[in-house]
Amino acid sequence: MLLQGKTAVVTGAGSGVGAASALRFAAEGARVVCADIQGDAAQDTARQIENAGGAALPVTCDVAREAEVEALIANAAAHFGHVDIVFNNVGVPTPRLGATLEEHTADDFQRLVAVNVGGVFFGCKHAVLQFKRQGSGGVILNTGSVAGLVAWGGAVYSATKGAVHQLTRSVAIEGAPFGIRANAICPAGMPYTHFMAAGGAPADAESVARMAERTAANHPLGRPITAEDCAQAAVFLVSDNASNVTGVLFPVDGGYVAK
Ligand SMILES: NC(=O)c1ccc[n+]([C@@H]2O[C@H](COP(=O)([O-])OP(=O)(O)OC[C@H]3O[C@@H](n4cnc5c(N)ncnc54)[C@H](O)[C@@H]3O)[C@@H](O)[C@H]2O)c1
Q1: Any atom of ligand 1 within 6 Å of the Cβ of 187
Q2: Which of 63, 134, 156, 236 could make a disulfide contact with 119, Cβ separation 3.0–4.6 Å?
Q3: Tell me, what's the pLDDT at 212?
Q4: Residue 157 annotated as catalytic
């Protein structure tokens, strides 16, 4: 029970890494605020936590809108009395996976920046404000990507993740005197979440299996990354076991970056 007595806010909690982390945090004793732009999906994750005997609050929130993120943190504090952990996990792919830089429209660019960078900026900002009001520190975790650590194309998405990484490290430095830690997990290819379908990839079982095979071949450990792999890393980084760990970009990548 690594997170006993803590309250955690998780964005993108309706699917993939966010859902797996919300469930894992709850299994470790946290009360979890499950936020997602898809309210039904957030409710579904919260229901699973409650059915397992945990405490959860579903919130519909678009992380690209500051007022909604501010309300999310306020809501979490009002409902559970305190906020200890904010996991800014939302990220969206380019609307057409494989699109080159010049194939991105201005709208594609603005949307990727608004959600992937704006969402993390608003999440960090309102977490820091809440932690400073509370006066007892706090923990921020962001979801970056190996795409922000090495280059394989995907220029616009990768640039947003590079920005997430640098935001994370800078917030770690600014927050350290206040007992605020900030780290990021950097996953490699996860074919089983909804991310690739959100980028227009086919989601039928055969296509996903083919994608999983290709992804596995890229990773020295020989298998794709799962949402649960990320959730396990997330639990460590937000727990007191990592109380002297901050500013870290933590690959969850089967050795992809080391290669
Ligand atoms: N899947 C991969 O291959 C991969 C690789 C590296 C990094 N990542 C990163 O992992 C994170 C999680 O992705 P995933 O694979 O679990 O994807 P996913 O699509 O399964 O889950 C993303 C969730 O975020 C929600 N969401 C989207 N836009 C939102 C918004 N504006 N406000 C609030 N919620 C919103 C979606 O409704 C969805 O429930 C993202 O930051 C992504 O960039 C994914």
Answers
A1: yes
A2: 63
A3: 97
A4: yes
